[in-house]
Amino acid sequence: MAAVIATAGLVQPATGSPAAAADPAPNGPQATAPDAAAVTYPLDCKGAPQAVTATAHGDLDGDGRPETVAAVRCQAGSGTPPHAIYVLTQAAPGEQATGSAGARVVATLVDTPQRQSATDLTVRDGIVTATLLGYSSPEVPRYSPDVKKLAKWRWTGGKFRQELTDSTAGSV
After folding, report:
1. Which of the residues 42, 135, 157, 166 has an alpha carbon 20 to 30 A from that of 102?
2. Is pTM, for the whole model, over 0.85?
3. Is residue 103 a contact partner of residue 35, using CB atoms and an 8 Å limit?
């Protein structure tokens, strides 16, 4: 029965104009978010490769073009290296880009010296949200973060501003 319902959902009469759906926006083709894998990040991995572990896309500055937010870290043989969180945009014609796809890093939201790992990276309604896992002191083992923060950033006044975060100390 479920297969019949699923098949019926796929075979529906066409409504509207297929050409209208395929037409680009009146101002030209629809902008695409930058490819996080095509960018060289300002992250010193001392010879180890860089790894993009999470991405999120959305229009953060209200210009109608989507940006990409990327959580990046060095690929270590063991342990959990800290993340950096970068905001990427497509380079305008004539601008210097850091990747073959014309994307460039425009902001660093979290840098590796903060020694945090990022999870649950999202972009919604122009707000970047991430869960940051960290350590309350140098004595805490690096494999067992004991601080969890919900961090939010919003583009305001020409730069990203971090909004208040919830902090919960204790085992994460």
Report:
1. 157
2. no
3. yes
Query: Hey, is 160 helix, strand or coil?
Result: strand
* Nearest CA-CA partner of 85 in 113, 107, 57: 107
**Region label for 124, one of left (φ > 0), alpha (ψ between -120 and 50) or beta (otherwise):** beta
Question: Residue 20 phi/psi, 5° resolution?
Answer: -65, -35
Q: Is 90 exposed, middle or buried (0-12, 13-18, 19+ CB in 10 A)?
A: buried
Residue 86 neighbours by CB under 8 Å, 6+ apart: 39, 41, 69, 70, 72, 105, 107, 108, 109
Summarize pLDDT for 2-53 with one digit per residue, the tens. 333 333 333 333 222 223 333 334 454 567 899 999 999 999 999 999 999 9
Amino acid at 63: D
- Cα–Cα distance, 86 to 20 (Å, whole number): 36
Determine the Cα–Cα distance for residues 43 and 111; give it in Å rounded to an integer: 9
Which amino acid makes up residue 7? T
